[in-house]
Write a structure and sequence with these properties.
The complex is a heterodimer of chains A (83) and B (387). Chain A is an alpha+beta fold and 83 residues long. Chain A has one domain: Translation Initiation Factor IF3 (2-Layer Sandwich). By secondary structure, chain B is an alpha/beta fold. Chain B has 2 domains: 136 residues, Aspartate Aminotransferase, domain 1, CATH 3.90.1150.10; 237 residues, Aspartate Aminotransferase, domain 2, CATH 3.40.640. In chain B, 43% of the residues lie in helices and 13% in strands. Classes of the chains: A alpha+beta (83), B alpha/beta (387).
Chain lengths: 83, 387
């Protein structure tokens, strides 16, 4: 897993404590809201996202930039690269 | 025999327009809101419309309304969900001594799970003093929960003032607004609360539907785990007819609230004036002339030398339906903690009775009640060994 810090983001979804698979539904929803090249940040405490979000990026052709950790949740960064 | 339903804080009859709005969702519109085909989409759209209607009643954004099965669930969700979400910041919670059981028992559960809870006292009217709230806050305090109004004594609390204190200190503030939503104006922005509980059956909606307002950006741990209903915050296939009914009831309440307040207030004041002519009967909560401190549809008394339950039974034989405290305490046949908290002696608290009014009540109901109530008390006092 690639760890990144101080990423400049265009939009954030705070879904900490929200149930699986909200992380994937939020990604689907947000990718439609941003322009090509913009960065999405997802905040979640769901461990399954560690596999799901990179996999989702592979499947959809978007760039998985990496992740960061806060006190009790993860931060995932995705750049829209698939039109 | 005339029937006078004076137990509107227990529950309300369903508004006929609410029932009409719900009916299709019991029958042809039975789809699961998560299904992708048109039947599911229509159910989902109906829920989202109800969310807008409920949000509009409390001046909130629709996305901040989470539907639950009841006010009690909303209260459990607020207390436990915020305690768990914020426990890394502190483990101290403040609630008042006169909260509903769904708050008090959730607080007791949290105490057993390692949280510290302070139960705030109230004055003789049942009001929580914002200064006492301020003094009770510690560095560990993460959450405060004070009901907007008491369904037992009708006292409306100073929520706005308490919210100003919590905001300054970055403490989450929840109010149980089950007794007030749909009955008096409730505006989450004006009140300044972070969370607010509601129940549809308190404003002519159906049982089985409640909601919790969760301020935008506030994290809350779910109470029910499972699917992604309610944006991943509350699992379980939605009770679509009840939610639709709650939405319709909220829409009607918003349009009619001033009319309802005026109607109930007038009847309330007549009951208070008439009942207080009987010897040895006392009003609990604020006097009616302090109208921003007392629910407009609420009267509550303690009657000396007789028991509330005996009054209820005799009144019901006359077609008059009332309550002797909260619906929960009433069943348990024990002194109400609310009445004890406002300093009513235990023996007198046994004579508690609550008459709560609604849009279905009339002046004729009040005439009938005021003619019958003194006789009921006289007869019971004749039988009482204490009178």
């Amino acid at each position: 897993m690639k760890f990144v810090h101080d990423i400049k983001v265009d939009i954030t979804a705070d879904i900490v404590y929200m149930m699986c698979p909200m992380h994937l539904l939020k990604l689907d929803e947000m990718i439609k809201m941003v322009e090509d090249g913009q960065v999405i940040e997802i905040l979640t405490d769901y461990d399954g996202a560690l596999d799901d979000i990179p996999e989702w990026c592979l499947k959809t052709g978007n760039e998985f930039i990496g992740m960061d950790e806060d006190e009790d949740y993860y931060k995932f960064y995705v750049r829209k690269t698939a039109a | 025999m005339r029937k006078c339903y004076f137990d509107h804080v227990g529950t309300n009859p369903l508004h006929p327009d609410v029932l009409n709005a719900m009916m299709p969702y019991f029958k042809e519109e039975f789809g699961n809101p998560l299904s992708v085909y048109d039947l599911g989409i229509r159910a989902r759209d109906a829920i989202e419309m109800a969310r807008e209607q409920v949000a509009s009643l409390i001046n909130a954004k629709p996305s901040t309304v989470v539907f639950t099965s009841s006010g009690a669930e909303a209260n459990n969700f607020a207390l436990r969900g915020i305690a768990l979400a914020k426990q890394s910041h502190g483990k101290h919670i403040l609630v008042s001594k006169i909260e509903h059981h769904s708050i008090l028992n959730s607080a007791r559960f949290l105490e057993k799970s390692g949280f510290a809870v302070t139960y705030l006292p109230v004055d003789k009217y049942g009001s929580v003093d914002p200064e006492v709230v301020k003094e009770s806050i510690t560095k560990e305090t993460i959450l405060i929960s004070i009901a907007h109004a008491s369904s037992e004594i009708g006292t409306i609390e100073s929520i706005k003032e308490i919210a100003a204190i919590t905001k300054e200190r970055n403490i989450i503030f929840h109010t149980d607004a089950v007794a007030t939503t749909g009955n008096i104006p409730v505006d989450v922005r004006e009140l300044g609360v972070d969370l607010l509980s509601m129940a549809a059956h308190q404003f002519y909606g159906p049982k089985g539907a409640g909601a919790l307002y969760v301020r935008e950006g506030l994290r809350i741990v779910p109470l029910l785990y499972g699917g992604i209903q309610e944006g991943g915050r509350r699992a379980g296939t939605e009770n679509v007819p009840a939610i639709v009914g709650m939405g319709k009831a909220a829409e009607i309440a918003k349009n009619e609230i001033n009319k309802r307040i005026e109607h109930c207030k007038r009847l309330r004041d007549r009951i208070i004036e008439g009942a207080l002519k009987i010897p040895n009967i006392y009003l609990t909560g604020h006097p009616a002339d302090n109208s921003d401190k007392r629910l407009p549809h609420h009267t509550s008394f303690v009657v000396e030398f007789i028991e509330g339950e005996a009054m209820l039974l005799m009144l019901s034989m006359k077609g008059i339906y009332a309550a002797s405290g909260s619906a929960c305490s009433s069943k348990a046949l024990k002194s109400s903690p609310v009445l004890l908290s406002i300093g009513i002696p235990s023996a007198l608290a046994q004579g508690s009775i609550v008459f709560s009014l609604g849009i279905d009540n009339s002046d004729e109901d009040v005439d009938y009640f005021l003619a019958e109530f003194p006789h009921v008390i006289s007869r019971l006092r004749e039988m009482s060994p204490f009178a």
